[in-house]
Amino acid sequence: MFRFANIEYLWLLILIPVLVVLFILYDRHKRRQLAQFGDAELVALLMPNASRTRPIVKFSLLLLAYTLLVFALARPQYGTKEQTIKRQGIEVMFALDISNSMLAEDVAPNRLERAKQMLSKLIDKMQDDKVGLIVFAGQAFVQLPITADYVSAKMFLQSISPDLIKTQGTAIGDAINTSVRAFGDNQSQASRVIILITDGENHEDDAKTAAQEAKQKGIEVIVVGIGKPKGSPIPIAGTNNFMKDRSGNVVVSRLNEEMCKDIASAAGGIYVRCDNTNTAMRAVQKEVDTLAKSDIEAKVFTDYNEQYQSFVLLALLVLIFDFFIFSRKNKKLSRINLFEKETL
């Protein structure tokens, strides 16, 4: 496994395009100054040792050396030993509704983004738990299998949008069933919980039956309803318009709290409504904290070999090479011609 131990230093790479722009501006300024002396061809004859390409090559080498040193500062490492360890935690599967109705803006900035913000904060509070991610609309699929890698979980979470699923709808029952299957068939004694985030507009299947089946398997379902009962129109991305039905009327998406409560009740879990405060997150966190924690296995790399030395060495070689390249042509060296015979 490859990683950067100090990944924050990679932000220094942002300076590269800035330096490139400054070099281009400086080069243009220098050419304008030379143009003031007269015709470019005549000026070139007066400066036979001047080179247009050598400064560019030297600048490119310096940029390469800078990049290599930044990588060295970030401490690249290769994992060499994978070990299975046991931790005291639970297994959590997030099931996130990504149907178009989740774009409604009755909570800020919209339902989907607010849900992602809440899940991100929940992940931040996890330590020894495992987490997975299901997304659903007209159908459900596993976005991230159950894992202890919170960095990957947050990365996948941020990439979620309604474009991931072309089949529109809200198949809550399918989402619960997919979440149950995603836990796997291992005999882990850890508590398992599905945190379902939706606006409750279920149009596809029997979500309550799926919730009851999850309960029978010892899996709790926490339902987070997002939105407001009075509803909100659904904006069309990139326009100032809203989605309309076949009759031309603006579609108003409403939070179906009754459906959400029925699902939570069938699964023996709780229902909370998510608004613009952190009330829902605190309620979910409190419920999760009551679950019994058991030994769960996770595979992690415990030994890493430092690789920064290679990057430092390469940077040093590049700088040495750059040192021996002159900005101007060498007058003495230019006289050497190994491929022409002397004439007597």
Order of strands across the widest beta sheet?
Answer: 5-4-3-6-7-10
* Element pattern in H and E: EHHHEEHEEHHEHEEEHEHEHH
Tell me the number of helical segments per DSSP (H or I, 4 or more residues long). Answer: 11
In total, the number of domains comes to: 2
Give a quick summary of the entry:
With about 350 residues, the protein is α/β, with parallel strands linked by helices.
Question: Could you walk me through the main structural features you see in this protein, from its secondary elements to its overall organization?
Answer:
- There is one protein chain.
- This protein has 344 residues and is an alpha/beta fold.
- It has 2 domains: 2-79 and 305-335, no CATH class; 91-292, von Willebrand factor, type A domain (Rossmann fold).
- It contains 11 helices and 11 strands.
- Strands 5-4-3-6-7-10 form a 6-stranded mixed beta sheet, sandwiched between helices.
- Strand 4 (130-136) and strand 5 (140-147) form a beta hairpin.
- Helix 3 (53-73) runs antiparallel to helix 10 and helix 7 runs parallel beside helix 8.
- It is elongated, with a radius of gyration of 30 Å.
